[in-house]
């Protein structure tokens, strides 16, 4: 009888341990599955972030390439075509502190208007963005348009003088001066810290 009691006790203990072990194993399996799901979600989140970042970079690069692909090189004929036909400068804006007709000085006329494209206008400081264009219309005292002077910032064109490409046009687009005229560079060079821009002050 005593042996039988011990055997029953042993069997009961074994069954109890077996049940605990079984439950622990189930818990362990569930824990592993939950942890694996958590890891998968983390990897998925990281991949989504990485994918989103890569898409943004791609859009930025394509956007920049598109903008510069549409811009002319340092060529007077291409630049005239751009500011007169592709993106008429008269539809551009003025500098916020240099609006409309303003008094001028030699070598330009006694009056002038200065137009700038969005690349220049949206530049928050110096140097202004590459692709920036400033167009100055020179007028006589009678307020008749005399000529058009353009300064165009082209990457790598003339690093010593702000990378500006200069052109003086007649009203028909004929070229009177272009490139790196000493007079233009010398005069505007007095404001080299303001990226050679005379009529607008960057703060």
Overall outline? elongated
Number of strands: 7
Question: What is the CATH domain class of the largest domain?
Answer: Alpha Beta
Radius of gyration: 36 Å
Following the backbone from N to C, one meets helices and strands in this order, namely: HHEEEHEEEEH
Determine the fraction of residues in helical runs and give it as a percent range: 40-55%
What is the CATH architecture annotation of the largest domain?
3-Layer(bba) Sandwich
Identify the CATH homologous superfamily of the largest domain: Cytochrome P460
Largest sheet features: 7 strands, antiparallel
The CATH topology of the largest domain is Chalcone isomerase
Count of folded domains? 2
Give the terminus-to-terminus CA distance: 103 Å
- Sheet-strand content, in percent, reads 15-25%
SS-derived structural category: alpha+beta
What is the arithmetic mean of pLDDT? 84
Contiguous runs where pLDDT drops below 50 for at least 5 residues: 60-67
User: Given the structure, what is the number of helices?
Assistant: 4
Overview of the structural elements:
Strands 1, 2, 3, 4, 5, 6 and 7 form a seven-stranded antiparallel beta sheet that branches. This protein has helices at residues 2-70, 76-86, 118-121, 182-188, and strands at 93-94, 102-103, 111-116, 133-139, 145-153, 164-169, 175-179. The longest helix is centred in the first third of the chain and has 69 residues, at 2-70. It folds into two domains: 1-70; 76-194, Cytochrome P460 (Chalcone isomerase). The protein has four helices and seven strands.
Task: Tell me the layout of helices and strands.
Layout: H1 2-70, H2 76-86, E1 93-94, E2 102-103, E3 111-116, H3 118-121, E4 133-139, E5 145-153, E6 164-169, E7 175-179, H4 182-188
Antiparallel strand pairs: 1-3, 2-3, 3-4, 4-5, 5-6, 6-7
């Amino acid at each position: 009888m005593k042996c039988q009691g011990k055997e029953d006790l042993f069997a009961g203990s074994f069954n109890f341990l077996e049940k605990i072990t079984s439950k622990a194993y189930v818990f362990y399996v569930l824990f592993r599955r939950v942890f694996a799901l958590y890891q998968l979600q983390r990897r998925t989140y990281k991949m989504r972030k990485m994918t989103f970042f890569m898409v943004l970079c791609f859009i930025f690069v394509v956007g920049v390439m598109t903008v510069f692909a549409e811009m002319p090189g340092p060529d007077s004929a291409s630049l005239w075509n751009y500011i007169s036909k592709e993106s008429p400068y008269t539809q551009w804006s003025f500098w916020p502190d240099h609006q409309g007709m303003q008094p001028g000085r030699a070598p330009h006329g006694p009056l002038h208007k200065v137009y700038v494209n969005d690349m220049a206008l949206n530049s928050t400081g110096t140097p202004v963005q590459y692709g920036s264009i400033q167009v100055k219309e020179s007028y006589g005292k009678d307020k008749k348009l005399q000529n058009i002077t353009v300064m165009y910032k082209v990457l790598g064109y003339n690093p010593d003088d702000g990378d500006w490409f200069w052109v003086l046009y007649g009203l028909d687009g004929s070229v009177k001066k272009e490139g790196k005229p000493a007079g233009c560079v010398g005069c505007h060079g007095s404001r080299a810290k303001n990226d050679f821009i005379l009529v607008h002050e960057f703060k």
